[in-house]
Amino acid sequence: MKLKRTEAQSSARQFRVRAYFVLAALLVVAAGIVARAIDMQFIRRDFYVSQGNERWQRNVEIPAHRGAILDRNGETIAASTPVDTVWVNPAEMDDKAVQLPALAHQLQLDQDWLTRRVTANFDTHYVVVAKQLQPDEAARVAALHIPGVSLSRGYRRYYPAGEVTGHILGFTGDGDAGQEGLELAYEPMLQGENGLKKVVQDRHGNIVESLENIRPARAGEELVSSIDLRIQYLAYRELKSAMQEFGAKGGSVIVVDVRTGEILAMVNQPSFNPNDRLQLDPAHYRNRAATDNIEPGSSVKPFFVIAALASGKYKPDSVIDTNPGYIRVGNNVIEDEHNWGAMDLATILARSSNVGMAHIALSLEKSTIFNTLTGLGFGQVSATGFPGESAGVLTQYTHWHDIQVATMAHGYGLSVTPLQLVQAYTTVGALGVRRPLTLRRVDGVVPAGDRVLDQQVCRDAIHLIESVVTDGTGKKAHIPGYRVAGKTGTAWKAAGGTYSTNKYVALFGGVVPATAPRFAAIVVIDEPSKGKYHGGDVAAPVFAAVLGGVLRLTAVPPDDLSHVSTATFVQAEVPR
Question: Most buried residue, 160, 210, 267, 309, by most Cβ within 10 Å?
């Protein structure tokens, strides 16, 4: 009996010990839980909150809308439209990769390529599979509800005029950042500033809640260009037609408002369509008018005559004896096609006499010539700020020899861009005031400019080069009802250290109307063929077609009605 009592007591003690142990264990666990809770909720709360946020919260950029580019009349010539990028997080697809064929079909992608691209990048979380989808296309992708497939919004640049404005506007890259032309020149102004917002994402990367706007997006500013889209289309059409007619390799046309320095049109051939990114060719998208150096040939002769008039040694009626039809300069001989004998300045320009120009240039101080040319803008970039613009080549006059002076007087030994040539003609048309050329519309006060030539010298020069169109090599530049002042140019092209005898550059530059110039223009046709290559035959007709249209579009009154019949005016109203 006593033994049974002892066993019962022992069992009770063991039970109490086990109970106390279990209780102690529970207390320890409870204390640990409380301690953990205190640690997570109070002591290291910020740490755990930040860790959770890093897994579910993201700072997402809000794309800024790029500013539009307009022509001077408010027509949109560049605008940004919304597009979407399709990207995949391979780690979230797992066994859902079986849905890739449906995605490939929707995106019109090769199924094998898409499968390889996704499966080969399981160690990354962001694999782009398609870019620049239109919103309706992106909506169809989203409707597939494939885990791991997401969309991100961006913008794509669109150019309504296509290749007509391609060389001026340039284009943007994938990030909608300017790469060429005005898009690059005015990038800081156009691009704006992306915003930033904090969002909550689910495990598939989809935004389920916007928490706060950290920084609002700032849209880019609107750029109003100086371009008149009507004149741009006109110049583009006439240049392209001339390219086809004469089988030329390239060409440029620039039209400038003499009163303001605004560039109203700038076109080149070959052209390119900035909307077709797959066909961008560096050889086509460079702006020849601003970047290409050419020897100007006889189109530079008026500026040497201006230097002569400015020197005081010559008057408009001064006579130069070109007998016997050539001039020897050192060991070199410069000759004319015929022996024209004694000629006044107007006749020298009309017949484009190299001998007459050599006599004039050699009689002047080299510094006078240099100062005249630099005052007109040769040897330096213009104020347009156009990316890649060339300064041409005009060496310091202290390095000139007589033969260089004589050859420069008929357009060899110096290099210019079409943009520099048109600036020089613009300055003459503005009666000696050189204003900065601009590709932005001038609003309000017109820039005063710098006086670089005497007014009377410019008036005399304009009157002299009128003879080129009325009686000389530029007759095809005539515009019915208007007096035209301009100069032809035909230059051999340099090749392999010498001049080619079968490759030419044809030019015509001038101002209209001659009595009170409103517009200046330059036409350059590179390597015309099909039997014609002179500036008077190739470039002058383009000048007449373009500037004739410009004068009508802008309603500039005729200044020469004496030799125009009523039938001519009726015909002029009929579209070409």
Answer: 267
